[in-house]
Amino acid sequence: MTRTSWLWICVVALAGSVGAPARAQSDWGVVLNGRTVHMNAAKDWNEDNWGLGVEKEFHSSSRWVSLAVANGFKDSLGEPSYMAGGGLKRRFRMFSDGLYFDVGVVGFVMTREDVNHNEPFPGALPAMTFGFKRLAVNVTYMPDKIVDNVTHANLRDPAMKGVLFIQLKLDASLLGVRGGHGPLLASAEKDNKIN
After folding, report:
1. Cα R_g (the chain), whole angstroms
2. pLDDT at position 95, please?
3. pLDDT of residue 99
């Protein structure tokens, strides 16, 4: 990856994290990329998109949750890809504060070998999260027209009708990282006090 690519990724990640005041509640998560579903695809795409990243939520106890994200993973062609950005999601709590569903949008800067030879490009996609306490699943959908506009995938697979990206998000406290005050980390601290 070029020095320009790293610079853009760092700028976007920093911009996403500066927007919230220091006293705001926050949660850190470790993101494990792992699965992509190429809907109705005729070609064998790489659907094991292993990778690692971080996600920081701001105001996670409110209805509107803003976030900053950065991660690296293997793309649909098996090449390394990197992204960083931020988003806004509406949080719906179900039955208790521990179970939630988020829906919103994530804007980002990304690099891919098959798009301008790893030069950063911007994007925005719809995103959902299904979570319970310290574990969540992030799902992002990329419609076929956007896939084609960015990667010209219809030349390789005209049958493909969009792509679903699936990530597992673990509260950083599960890995021994301390330092937030949001409901995920507060729940972990409460669990530790009980034990």
Report:
1. 17
2. 79
3. 92
* CA 73 – CA 76 distance, rounded (Å): 10
Nearest to 95 by CA among 136, 132, 134: 132
* pLDDT tens per residue across span 119-145: 999 999 999 999 988 899 999 999 888
pTM score of the predicted model: 0.75
β-partners of residue 58 are 26, 66
**Residues of the chain whose pLDDT is less than 70?**
1-26, 178-195
What is the CA 56 to chain-centroid distance, rounded? 10
Task: Give dist(CA 86, CA 58) in Å, integer.
Answer: 11
What does the alpha-carbon distance between residue 118 and residue 111 come to, in Å, rounded to a whole number? 5
Burial tier of 77 (Cβ tally within 10 Å: 0-12, 13-18, 19+)? middle
C-alpha to C-alpha distances, 32 to 39, 110, 128, 136, nearest whole angstrom:
21, 17, 16, 11
Quote the tokens at residue 132.
């319970």
- Expressed in angstroms, the distance from the first to the final Cα of the chain is 46
How many whole angstroms separate alpha carbon 54 and alpha carbon 29?
6
Cα 52 from Cα 38, distance rounded (Å): 20
